[in-house]
Amino acid sequence: DAGVTQSPTHLIKTRGQQVTLRCSPISGHKSVSWYQQVLGQGPQFIFQYYEKEERGRGNFPDRFSARQFPNYSSELNVNALLLGDSALYLCASSFPSQGAYEQYFGPGTRLTVT
Amino acid sequence: AQSVTQLDSHVSVSEGTPVLLRCNYSSSYSPSLFWYVQHPNKGLQLLLKYTSAATLVKGINGFEAEFKKSETSFHLTKPSAHMSDAAEYFCVVSFTGGGNKLTFGTGTQLKVEL
Fold first, then answer.
1. Which residues of A touch B (CB under 8 A)?
2. Could you tell me if A44 and A36 are in contact, meaning their C-beta atoms sit under 8 angstroms apart?
3. Among A44, B56, B72, B96, which is least packed, fewest CB within 10 Å?
């Protein structure tokens, strides 16, 4: 079975631009979460979606938004990019919507903002 | 609030010797605890999880961890290190009722020498 997939793998953007990152969960998984991992740090929670609804949001500005589609895939959008948005963006999927179940991570999208 | 503290940012061992990566947690609720491993330029892989069943948890690749409530610890161990174990290890906490938000520690870089 395919794991969590993310696209693109790498991305270079300029300050002020907008970016969209994509994620496809493991087949059968209905929950998708997004994390930001800055170099040298642990991942930070951004969003969780389940059944197309936002179920959790981390401490990130409104420039960050996301959505989930009927097929459970998800997009993360970041507007007005800042240099500090340069990071590895990880998507994770899990089966239930609640409870502390393990999440399965994709390989990530490396975003560089210049 | 929940948090984890990884007590060592870097650990160096010789191949064939035991590995100990230390983690303390803080959670207002019954926690679920995980260890994830991240190899260079790769996504996060789940090593093992504790979710209020047996306090000694066995994971993949010979790793195990023991949940000690009295010490609020969840240390990761392996009897004999292998070169392929060299990676970044993250201790992660979540709690029942907290949805799918994972809170990561800052990571421990494990180096394995010949």
1. 4, 31, 33, 35, 41-45, 48, 50, 55-56, 58, 90, 92, 94, 97-108
2. yes
3. B56
Mutate to test the interface with A, among B10, B101, B108 (most CBs of A within 10 A): B101
pLDDT in 10s for each residue of chain A, 114 residues: 689 999 999 999 999 999 999 999 999 898 999 999 999 899 999 999 988 899 889 999 999 999 999 999 999 999 999 999 999 999 999 886 545 578 899 999 999 999
Lookup: tokens for B13: 């061992």
The answer to whether residue B50 neighbours chain A at the CB level (below 8 Å) is no
With beta carbons under 8 A apart, name residues in chain B contacting A41: 106-107
Distance CA B43, CA B114 (A): 26
Three-state DSSP state, B62: helix
